[in-house]
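Encode chain A's predicted structure.
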Amino acid sequence: MYWRGLRPGSCTQAGPACRERGRDRRHRRTGPGHATGAVTAMTARRDPSLAEQAYDRLEEMLVTLALPPGESLREQVLAERLGMGRTPVREAVQKLASEGLLRIIPRKGLEVTPVDRGDLVRVLEVRRVLERLMVVKAAERATPDQRRALHAVASHLDANAGDLETFFRLDRRLNEVLARACRNAWLVQSLSPLHAHCRRLWYLHRGHLDLGAAAVSHEALARAVGDGDGAGAVRALNGIMSELEQLVSNLALPD
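Encoded structure for chain A:
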């Protein structure tokens, strides 16, 4: 998904020098209303563009298997299905193709990328390294509100360990809070497509998941980061990654 508000290079992700330049620019403004305008601009959340909306909806359809692996598609049909114009859908398709969820076949159309065990092994190989950095930095940098949000996710995971859709919703919420808490947009941008491939893996196994074990490991991760325990977060993450690796090994697919 697009991580709105976490664009690489933005001042919210930069160091003190960038923030200082921002203060200098605000001090140079004159005239009534400038201070209020600056605060409004900094706090207002940008509405998603049509391309971002198309991307979010198509990604959800791909990872939840509403568009199953191997299915042939056409851009015009997708645009009609989403009720959107072809331009934003084309932008979304190009991004999804760059992330490995779609294939663009010249003069033929599109194909939902088939699930391949070897590719998933490589996805998990990269995710393990990058997400370790994310959870450590999130444990260090999370705000009090973010720590409360993480503990709330942990409590809900504990209370809803057997409900599949609730688990998926809380997993996404956990990823969203960690993404903001780590305060590194480059890291978030790198992990986002890896999470999409892993969510598709969860859905492929949705009828055979050990939800109790998955909820326990995700709850442990949320609590550890919320407590500022980087080492505990890494241990919990290792458990989650081991569960995903087991799911990959259980796939009856060619390498």
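Residues 1-5, 9-44 have pLDDT under 50 and may be disordered.
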